[in-house]
Specification:
The complex is a heterotrimer of chains A (172), B (421) and C (317). Chain A has helices at residues 8-42, 49-70, 80-83, 89-121, 131-134, 137-161. With 172 residues, chain A is an all-alpha fold. Chain C has 317 residues and is an alpha/beta fold. Helices cover 49% and strands 20% of the residues of chain C. Classes of the chains: A mainly alpha (172), B mainly alpha (421), C alpha/beta (317). The complex binds sodium ion (2 copies). Residues 323-324, 326-327, 364-365, 371-372 of chain B line the site of one sodium ion.
């Protein structure tokens, strides 16, 4: 009852995300190695491979960051555990999650503004995909992060209201 | 606006994710000077133009694979056979193994968790006292930071736009100096009657060599590949990845294929955590550039400090504080862009600066009160943190001595570049 | 502070002829407007490359920039027309064409919300490599850089049958140093300013193309200026940017000697190979016309060039 129940939709989403991450990383390793082989043995690589790899790094990293959100694995100082009495900790956690929700919401908004401007003025980018397409990972990842903090705010609030000690935040 | 910033900083101390703290500061700052918020994302999108970035996720994945395999046990066995015979043998083995392991996995605490559990009982069994042993492992947890292909070294190269292959060379001698000093101290502290020392035969040695035959070539592949001119640092990461994948999954079969997706997504989460901090700091740095802060800061500092040596001294003190407060990745992305132009003004070579940075941040890992290694070790060994403060003090003193040497003898970080670069 | 502050960025490094001369221009404008119009210069790429600079201009963080042709031609494709390989024989032809096309460029940039203030110059560009490159064969054996986002260069290199590495300018030096590429293209002065000559120590002494850029201001912001200030900017720009072009040419001339003193070797291209490479020019034009630039602008340019050549009794390649 104290454990936050994740809907099967969120679970499926997380599984899908994990799959995408694995595919991205696998593809990055293969493409980078193919590029080295082509350069070493055939004197020239694929023109689009290096810029594509750079975008893949961005996509995999931002998706990874979004996954890290729901597992509480973002780098943080977290002195609360040493500074504050245990009673206050759920409240502090709620404040942190609220702050994270608002900030990631603004980041999503800023990304949408950026993408709008790219759609209006941008140019065809790598592999004739417009630059806004390659940059779509920003609104996508920040939206996912926002939704995850929304869920965290919700579960923390419920926990506090139920008067239980927080069990969601086993953080390092 | 100032109120928002204060709230943000307060929440930072209380555990809000750092990438959002930095992002929030950037968003608040830009809106306070009426600049469109999308600048934050424009600046983040520049990460797609960073060619060296790819070596981060690839080396992270290779490091995670190594730490999930039985490589730590094999390397430990091998070192015990070849180094264990000398006075203070096991302590030297611990230092060497931790250094190699940290170089490959980054100082993300993996070293203390994966190796600490093996090393501490062994050290105590060999007659080392407990306090010394804990201090040794805690301070070794970040010892390999200066050795290639350590992640913080790569990250410094990415942020400062300096050559990663040069950074790899620059770190070797300073890293060895640390290792030698700590080893010498450990030899002095070794138990007087090493009667329970295990003896190994030539057969044991051969078998240990054969067992780790596939992992031994890794440093050669990375360093030989780069300095032999076969590939650049980013490509070295891809080759390392493929090699480790084949060795650990197909040859040793330490890692089941079914376990791969978990390891892969774990590595990407680790990388993602670093990437978003880097992205956020791109935005906050751009605000500082926009307001010409680095330039003004330099002019301000130059009014009070004339000498490069005084500057370096103050820089070290500043970085030790930063290193003790922040994790190494946040410290790098936040402080390097600010300090680099100033150090440049004092004629400090950016590669040398990088080594100074990393040495300080490494020491920060075991500096009381909040060094990360202290917490990790306290958690792993189930000891109160104050006890770990005391046990790491002698090691801390030695590391500070190397810091002075590294700072004031740039030769140490430059001679290999002149020879092989 | 100034009532009208223009924040300007450029890839050109501090202390280079482009930034130094630009600062003389800003100083004059500020003086003549009684301090009402001011400039803040972000040199050396600290605001990012051309693409980032353009994005920041759109949202109003920057109000202008010294752009390279390759970086800004994605916004106005016809602007790259003068970079067709083996097009010009000398700087007089460059100036004739540039002057003739100026109204067209101004109009096209203006449609994108950008005020074309002046053309800037990098100069005639040369092949530079870590080893001597004098024949097509040797060119084919090398690992060549081309600027990211330059379809014309990509088409030309593709016609020759080379597979290049695409990098943006700030990444070229480190890639030369690490051996990712061994052959680059730049003006002589450009290779000094960007330190490329420290690695690419062999220059093939036959220019094959022309590189240039443009100083743009945000049109919205420029239009808001009182007309007399706009005129001051235009007049000062006309004066200082023509000096800048002279200075750039002088620097390129002097660079020949500087490079030789630094141990750079100049080699002559094999005449057969040079003729062979020139045949790829027409193929490149045929292939790139309509996508990389418009046919109308190409025809207009060739008419100006032919008229100039007829009047000065010279011919093309
Ligand atoms: Na930065
Ligand atoms: Na730290």
């Amino acid at each position: 009852m104290t454990k936050p129940k994740r809907s099967s939709l969120a679970q499926k989403g997380a599984r899908f995300e994990e799959l995408v991450l694995c595919l991205l990383l696998g593809f990055m390793i293969v493409l980078a190695c193919v590029q080295i082989a082509l350069r070493t043995f055939f004197g020239g690589g694929l023109l689009w491979a290096d810029p594509l790899l750079r975008y893949l790094v961005l996509w995999s990293g931002l998706l990874g960051a979004s996954m890290a959100t729901s597992r509480g694995e973002h780098i943080a100082l977290d002195l609360a555990g040493y500074l504050l009495p245990e009673k206050l900790q759920p409240l502090v956690q709620l404040a942190c999650h609220l702050f994270a929700l608002i900030t990631s919401g603004f980041l999503t908004w800023a990304s949408i503004l950026f993408i709008q401007s790219e759609i209006e003025y941008g140019s065809p980018g790598l592999l004739d995909i417009p630059t806004w397409g390659w940059n779509m990972i920003f609104p996508l990842a920040f939206l996912l992060i926002t939704l995850r903090y929304l869920a965290l705010v919700f579960t923390t609030t419920t926990t506090i209201l139920q008067g239980h000690k927080s069990t969601t935040g086993v953080r390092q | 606006m100032t109120l928002f910033k204060i709230i943000t900083l307060l929440l930072a101390i209380l555990g809000a994710p750092l990438f959002l703290v930095i992002s929030a500061l950037a968003l608040i700052s830009f809106s306070s000077v009426d600049i469109d918020l999308s600048v934050v994302v424009i600046e983040m999108s520049r990460l797609a133009d960073t060619p060296m970035l790819i070596s981060l996720p690839l080396f992270i994945f290779a490091g995670t694979l190594l730490s999930e395999s039985k490589a730590p046990e094999r390397i430990l066995m091998l070192s015990r056979i070849f180094l264990g015979w000398m006075p203070g043998g096991l302590a030297v083995v611990s230092l060497a193994v931790c250094a190699v392991f940290t170089a490959f996995t980054g100082a993300s605490g993996v070293t203390i968790f994966a190796l600490g559990g093996l090393l501490l009982p062994a050290l105590i069994k060999d007659g080392y006292n407990e306090r010394f042993s804990m201090g040794l492992i805690t301070s070794s947890g970040s010892l390999g930071l200066l050795f290639p292909p350590s992640l913080p070294l790569i990250l410094y190269g990415v942020i400062s736009e300096t050559r990663i292959d040069h950074l790899f060379l620059a770190g070797i001698l300073p890293g060895l100096l640390m290792l030698v000093l700590l080893a010498a101290y450990s030899m002095r502290q070794s138990p007087t009657a090493p009667d329970n020392k295990q003896r190994y035969s030539g057969k044991d040695a051969l078998s240990a060599l054969r067992q780790s035959a596939w992992e031994l070539p890794l440093p050669v592949i990375i360093l030989g590949g780069i300095y032999g001119g076969f590939f650049v640092a980013g490509e070295a990461a891809a080759v390392t990845c493929l090699y480790v994948l084949i060795v650990e999954v197909l040859i040793y079969r330490d890692i089941k294929i079914s376990a791969l997706p978990g390891i892969m997504s774990k590595s990407m989460m680790l990388f993602g955590g670093i990437l978003v901090i880097l992205a956020a700091s791109m935005a906050s740095t751009n605000y500082l550039v926009d307001q010409e802060v680095p330039m003004r800061l330099f002019e301000f500092i130059r009014e009070y400090i004339d000498s490069k040596y005084t500057f370096l001294l103050l820089l070290n003190i500043f970085l030790l504080i930063v290193g003790a407060m922040l994790d190494i990745f946040s410290a790098l992305v936040l402080v390097v862009p600010l300090i680099l132009p100033i150090a440049n003004g004092y004629g400090v070579d950016p590669i040398h600066l990088g080594i100074i940075f990393l040495t300080n941040l490494q020491i920060g890992y075991c500096t009381p009160p909040v060094g990360l290694n202290l917490f990790l070790a306290s958690y792993r060994f189930e000891k109160p943190i104050v006890e770990l403060y005391r046990s790491t003090l002698p090691f801390l003193a030695l590391l500070l001595i190397t810091l002075v040497v590294i700072t004031y003898f740039p030769w140490l970080s430059q001679v290999l570049i002149r020879t092989f670069g | 502070g100034p009532k009208h502050l223009f924040k300007i960025a450029s890839l050109a490094p501090d202390g280079s002829v482009w930034v130094t001369q630009f600062e003389k221009f800003t100083k004059e404008v500020t003086e003549k407007t009684g301090g009402e119009v001011g400039f803040r210069v972000y040199a050396g790429g600290i605001m990012g490359d051309d693409q980032a600079m353009y994005r920041k201009m759109r949202v109003g963080q920057l109000h202008g920039g010294g752009f390279t042709m390759t970086g800004i031609a994605s916004v106005v494709p016809d602007f790259r027309i003068m970079s067709i390989p083996f097009l010009f024989n000398n700087y007089q032809e460059v100036d004739a064409v540039s002057e003739g096309l100026m109204p067209l460029f101004q109009e096209q940039f203006s449609k994108q919300g950008l005020e074309f203030i002046a053309r800037t110059e990098v100069g005639f560009i040369y092949t530079m490599s870590t080893k001597p490159v004098v024949s097509t064969e040797e060119l084919k054996k090398s690992t060549i850089w081309i600027p990211a986002g330059d379809p014309l260069a990509a088409t030309f290199i593709d016609q020759i049958g080379l597979s290049p590495v695409q990098l943006s300018i700030p990444d070229v030096l480190s890639s030369l140093q690490t051996g990712l590429i061994d052959t680059v293209f730049n003006s002589l002065y450009g290779s000094i300013v960007l330190q490329w000559f420290t690695k690419a120590k062999y220059v093939t002494d036959n220019p094959f193309g022309y590189a240039y850029g443009v100083f743009l201001l945000d049109k919205k912001k420029f239009d808001k200026l009182p007309p007399k200030y706009a005129t001051i900017i235009r007049e000062s720009a006309a004066k200082h940017f023509s000096v800048l072009i002279e200075e750039t040419r002088k620097s390129n001339d002097e660079s020949n000697l500087v490079l030789k003193k630094q141990g750079v070797t100049f080699v002559k291209a094999n005449p057969d190979s040079l003729r062979e490479l020139q045949t790829f020019r027409q193929k490149t034009i045929d292939k790139a016309m309509g996508s990389a630039f418009s046919e109308a602008t190409y025809n207009k340019m060739m008419k100006i060039l032919d008229t100039y050549r007829a009047a000065h009794k010279t011919s093309g390649h």
